[in-house]
Amino acid sequence: MRETDLYGPVKGLFEAQGYEVKGEIGAADVVAVRGDEEPVVVELKLRFSLALFHQAVARLTMCDLVYIAVAHPLGPAAQRTLRDNVALCRRIGLGLITVRARDGHTEVHCDPSDRQPRRSPGRRARLLREFARRRGDPNDGGATRHGLVTGYRQDAVRCAVYLAEYGPSRGAAVARDTGVRVATRIMSDNYYGWFERSRRGVYALSDAGRRGLSDWADALPDATVR
What we know:
Blueprint: H1 7-15, E1 20-25, E2 28-33, E3 40-44, H2 50-59, E4 65-71, H3 78-92, E5 95-99, E6 106-110, H4 121-133, H5 151-166, E7 169-170, H6 171-178, H7 183-189, E8 195-199, E9 202-205, H8 207-216
Parallel strand pairs: 3-4, 4-5
Antiparallel strand pairs: 1-2, 2-3, 5-6, 7-9, 8-9
Helix pairs in contact: 5-6, 5-8, 6-7
């Protein structure tokens, strides 16, 4: 399929709605006009690209109704690709049309006037909780040499530091002295394999935990126990 193969189906889509359509008007690939209404601009490309979105956003300085039109994506990741780009178009106020290669069938996945997606209060809250839980800034915008340092990882390191210094301890004591309120649950879940139960309610550092401390000692701004 060539880029010019997109023009006929897109032109037909808008002509069926009563628009007069012309190609290559100034910087725009396609312009559709219907009476005194706001004109419509369409940018054509065979596939999604950053350059396509740059062009379409630039056309928003001309008018509010701007679409991008691409060949319908094919392959195992096609639906994910399409879904992600529909979400992007809605977020920045663009419409999205796909053209099927085998028969020129057009599909409008979103219009420029579609409501932008709502923010998720739950995701925002989780983001801020993790921000508040994280001590210092150990990732410096990326991961450490052993991986990403999360607030959960830092809490586990703090518990391990305590056990390394004081030996087998009750979860309540670890929580009180380290300030990690969920210390008992972290040691009980033992997600990293760092802890072992000595007896009911008492936890000790495992061999994996000692190795983990040497790997993750830099995960905390300070590794001291309060």
